[in-house]
Amino acid sequence: MKLVSAFMLVAAAGALLVGESASAQGRPVFGGSYTAVSAVGQDQAQVVYYRAEDVSGASAANIYLDREFITALKPGGYTAFCVAPGRHMLGSYLNDAPSYSGKNEELYAATFKGGATYYLKVREEGGNHPLPVNRALAATELEGQRRQVHLLSRASKVEPCRHYAYLDAPMVTLREFVLLADTAFDGRHGMSSAGNRQIQSVLADLQRENAQITRVEVEGHTDPLGAAADNQLLGQRWADSVRSALIRSGVPQAMTQATSAGSRTLVKHGCYGSQDEQRACYAPNRRVVLRVEVRRTPAH
């Protein structure tokens, strides 16, 4: 028992000497201010662990990964590191020096997925497990935070982060939406209340996906009943109405274009019977197609 105690005292003294030596050599406590981290590939998971600046006291929160010391976060400090995907133990302890017993106590265990970035915050009260924070809130709270650099990590599971430029490049995709004319328009070919709700639903879906609209093509289609020239004009009126609704909803006019395919591109063929029966059968042809080009910045 005495040997164990002596070993712990020596280890604690060594840890203190590391801190004193760094301080004696004039090593700064903080490095540069936080900037958004780049994405990592599927072969790694990334962690940004930070501590609020507006906390009472100046004691450090010791961060442990798989029971090994990473750093000691002071108020307003952060650290960022990468690990192999899989299950890891992670947590922070306040005031566990000089014995540094936190690494031997129960830590938060979780499975970290490859390609993901986790934003974690030190809990100042009520537990050593980290507080998960969503990316948007973390970006706000990390503004002005500084990297903790005064101590060397002892965590053997920490890996140098491998960042790939293509992962941060915006992704451009084309989304297609279909509005059925029988419900989207009223008798005067203007947008009905149901049609306006469909427009709002489309825009809300894109907003939830963090998609930036870069171009919208609106194309009107009719059924084959009637003269081709009349159908061409009707399809254009429908497309113009939808384009106007998009512009009223905030889509820049320069990004939108309205055209008509008339009755040239049918999705339903060969309808027979009375005019009413044919009109009901051909209903899927009466539509407006929205082709929306969107740009997404990867979330990590």
Q: pLDDT under 50 segments (min length 5)?
A: 1-25
Q: CATH topology of the largest domain, which one?
A: Immunoglobulin-like
Number of helical segments with 4 or more residues: 7
- The arrangement of helices and strands along the chain is HEEEEEEEEEHEHEHHEHEHE
Please, what is the average pLDDT?
A: 85
For this structure, what is the CATH class of the largest domain? Mainly Beta
What strand line-up does the widest sheet have?
1-10-5-2-8-9
Number of domains: 2
Measured as a percent range, the helix fraction is 25-40%
Please give the CATH architecture of the largest domain: Sandwich
- Profile the largest sheet: 6 strands, mixed
Distance between the termini: 48 Å
What is the 3D shape? elongated
Radius of gyration: 30 Å
Beta-strand proportion: 25-35%
Strand tally is 14
Structure class: alpha+beta
